[in-house]
Amino acid sequence: MVKSKIHTGAAGDGVQSGSGTAEIKQLFNRFLELEEPFFQRDIGGFRYWHYIRFHVFTDMLFQLKWITYTDVRKHTPVFKLIGLALSLLKNSMLHSVMSDRTRSPLLFLQTSHSVVHRGQRINPFTTLLRQSLTGKATVWETPMRWSHAPLSDRENLYFLDALHLWSFVRELLQPSPGALIREEIRFLNGLFQDLGIRLPEQRLRFLIRRVIRLKKSFSGPVRRMLKRKGVKVIILVNHYDPVKMVVTEVARTMGIHVVGLQHGSMGRYNIGYNFADVGPLPTLPDEIWTFGPFWTTTARIGQTGLRLLAMGSPYVEERVKDTVRTADTPKTTVLIISQWTLASDFERTALDLARDLDRDRYRIVYKLHPGEWQIWRATYSEAFLTAGITVVEDGDLYQLFSEADVIIGVYSTALIESLHFGKQLILLNRYGIHFFEELIQSGRVMPAENGRDIVEFIRNTDLSERRVYETDTFWTSGSLALMTSRLDLLLGTAEEKQV
Fold first, then answer.
1. Phi/psi of residue 51, each to 5°?
2. Which end of the chain is more exposed for a tag (fewer CB within 10 A), N or C?
3. 247 pairs with which residues across the strands?
4. Cα separation, 76 vs 52, whole angstroms
5. What kind and span of H or E run contains 310?
6. Is the dihedral of CA 486, 237, 38, 58 positive or negative?
7. What is the Cα–Cα distance from 127 to 134, expressed in whole angstroms?
8. Residue 392 forms beta bridges with which residues?
9. pTM of the full structure
10. Each residue's pLDDT tens digit in the chain (499 positions)?
């Protein structure tokens, strides 16, 4: 873990270059070096590495115990698992992409996600942009854990579940080439010995077989559907999702321009947004629209040849404008933004605060990560459940920001959204804090080792004073105008190519 105590040092101070931070950076950079030859490896002509690298790197972090993992299936009742299977079958027949006959030059490709905005259920990444357009656009949606969140506007919305189902059937009919996969596993683990890590063969086999299955099952149908629809531009969320990679690779061979929307914190150490000098990759978008200039300069994905354009976020811009700042309350509110990969660390921190802070003066609010909503009552301890902590599942995050006096997290993008509200931000020193190294070095955001350090800081700090952050660095304003103008240009250029 990162070894530095909480402090209020001058600008330029921050996370010390102790063994934790240095070790994390060294592993990350060494991984980028070692993986360079992997991009040329293929199985039957299919270059698979980019499809699995995110999961392989994440598995390494699990193995090193820098992050944790909770198997959702183990904590999901059997009747709910059966319900998810039935949901997959239903969504494969209703609203299936196979029934999409809409002619549309613009396609949104999103992962299921919804939030409440002005009384409507929307996708925070795509809905506001789509609704601002005058022309017709189609939405294809991949499920989140085999289900789809409710959306108020379902016009021209189609689900990709049928292709997932077909990929399972195809694997039964045409199994993946076992001998070639075993050879690749030996090659991968041979190179990763330099990191002192050996990944389980069963896990690597699963990852490789899955992406081979997706590639074989999705490529043909996707090509035919894109051609039938007359798609010229695709806007996608989460470009490092293997399904999105298949669509991207197929689309780019057809001359379709692919735009990726920033998804998460794309600093120098997010594996989804950083590469060594590997050259252009057909599985990456042509360009990525970032939240602001900070992100375009920190990530090392631009050296692959794609463009990075600071375009902002329509959803964040509207939410900041709409959220009513709450009046001061008798109790000081401490808001913890959990992440499922670090849930045990956040739980311990919350328990430290609940034990050591006077409940008559302080209120602790614990915002769960969406990945925890279904299982948190089974995975969190009895001590946590009975500690008097206010636990929030699908709540209004921006209202929570407004009500909070101090906000605690690690590397969630929500923390950067919260800067608009001028609250004291504390980052727990765990894996991912280095994503925001520049912000810590400014002296305005404080790192902390554990809950006891946070308690000491809270007791000795005036939290009523509004903090001033340079939010324009992280969030470009006028996002809708920038995006629609860029889309007009892209669609016009695509039209010219067709003539």
1. -70, -30
2. C
3. none
4. 26
5. strand 307-310
6. positive
7. 13
8. 367
9. 0.90
10. 333 333 333 333 333 333 357 788 888 999 999 999 999 999 999 999 999 999 999 999 988 888 886 666 666 777 777 877 788 888 888 889 999 999 999 999 999 988 999 999 999 999 999 999 988 899 999 988 778 888 999 889 999 998 888 887 877 777 778 889 999 999 988 878 888 888 889 999 999 999 999 998 999 999 999 999 999 999 999 999 999 999 999 999 999 999 999 988 888 889 999 999 899 999 999 999 999 999 998 888 988 889 999 999 999 999 999 987 766 678 999 999 999 889 999 999 999 999 999 999 999 999 998 878 878 888 899 999 999 999 999 889 999 999 999 999 999 999 999 999 999 999 999 888 888 887 888 777 899 999 999 999 999 988 888 888 889 999 999 999 999 999 999 999 655 554 4
Give the list of residues 6+ apart from residue 42 with CB closer than 8 angstroms, or none.
48
Closest by Cα among 110, 103, 88, 353 to 231 = 103
Angle (deg, nearest 10), helices 451-459 and 343-356: 40
Q: Are 290 and 296 in contact (CB under 8 A)?
A: yes
Nearest CA-CA partner of 395 in 428, 415, 418, 369: 369
Query: Is the separation of the CB atoms in 408 and 334 below 8 Å?
Result: yes
31 vs 192: CA distance, rounded Å: 8
Amino acid identity of 329? T
Q: Which residue has the tokens 């304003």?
A: 477
C-alpha to C-alpha distance for 319 and 399, rounded to whole angstroms: 9
* Number of residues written out for the chain: 499
Name the one residue in this structure whose structure tokens are 């311990």: 348
Tokens of 57: 């790197």
By the 8 A CB rule, do 259 and 494 touch? no
Phi, psi torsion values for 46, nearest 5 degrees = -95, 115
Question: Are 450 and 285 contacting, i.e. CB atoms less than 8 angstroms apart?
Answer: no
Using CA of residue 142, residue 144, residue 146, residue 150, what is the dihedral sign?
A: negative
Structural domains in the chain? Answer: 78-159 (no CATH), 325-474 (3.40.50.2000)
C-alpha 158/C-alpha 128 separation (Å) is 18
| CB atoms inside a 10 Å sphere around CB 472 | 12
Q: Work out whether the CA dihedral 173, 174, 176, 180 comes out positive or negative.
A: positive
